[in-house]
Amino acid sequence: xxxxxxxxQSYEESFSGWLGVGEAFSFWKGRVALYAILKALxxxxxxxxxxxxxxxxxxxxxxxxxxxKPVYVDIEPETFNINTDLLPEKITDRSRVIIAQHTYGxxxxxxxxxxxxxxxxxxxxxxxxxxxxxxxKGKLLGTFGKAAYFSMQWNKPFTTGLGGMAVTSDxxxxxxxxxxREDNISMPTAKEVMMLAAxxxxxxxxxxxxxxxxxxxxxxxxxxKGAVVGSSSTAEFTPDMADNxxxxxxxxxxxxxxxxxxxxxxxxxxxxxxxxxxxxxxAEKGWTPRQYDRDVMNPVMVRYPVRIAEKTExxxxxxxxxxxxxxxxxxxxxPAETPLEMYNYETGLCPQAEAASRQAVNLxxxxxxxxxxxxxxxxxxxxxxxAD
Length: 388
Ligand SMILES: Cc1ncc(COP(=O)(O)O)c(C=O)c1O
Hints:
alpha/beta, Aspartate Aminotransferase, domain 1, 7-stranded mixed β-sheet, 3-stranded antiparallel β-sheet, 16 strands, binds pyridoxal-5'-phosphate
């Protein structure tokens, strides 16, 4: 199967060039990129993969598809990232990989993770799906681990509708990912590509902060009816791999990705500026803004997380008030409907992650968010009580 047609190669080369890594491999979604990396690393039956207990179930599926066991580590509350103090006790003889998920855009404590992983001979994969452009000690995320992966789904730092990218500077691993892709990849159907192209056009024309809540409701309804290409099919809410899961990127997505890479620096600067505005306006209202170690982290946030006591009520009111209020991760393995027992998660395993699921909402930061939107959003959120 030719997975390098129609702009794919130049998109991959532009991406790896921008990031400063050896090679980039595009896929239909971020989760497919993770699957390719895990499989290329030889992860299989009985192996263990460590990740934070505050993630999306779509991130756990590839581990289960390969017959490996997900092992969850609780998060530290400020950055919502893996608590590295708890990491060593989770490593066993069966551990093969630590997934360093950079949540909301905050970098994980990479020094600690790399040290622990090296001392126990475990590979590190960075989940950069929410952290494109973020830096740790002056170096871009995605360049620390053995490999990393990115997502370009609708609400990610930039979108190609759906989309994923696996990157690595390890030539042996790159060869294996390449071989896997050449031998096994299927390409999206003409119908999927046509629908996705139409969705991208609608997104560019109509999706603004005030219309997002309504658009999401319509989108979920149309996904159930099969009238649009949804982010996840029904089959993806179980730990069994669907036949057509291992799919490549279409030319339409690659062209869209190339266009957005050209505007990436502007996107990053706007996100940083808007996050700063939230910091300032929340502080004016007496709220404690984001706390993180500014000497080592330079995050590009995908959304701006805040914790509130009345989350359910705030989400209910936001939809009616035209406020774009997001909610990740609604369960330690988002979404709330995930059957946790099928994914080796027992309630109580990660208390900090469970508290974050009950309290965290997120505010928009994408390039269409104006200063007036920030002000309206802050006015709205400050009607509620900030939670610790
Ligand atoms: C942290 C994180 N990693 C990975 C993914 C999977 O990305 P994709 O939807 O492109 O498969 C998600 C899902 O949205 C996510 O939130």
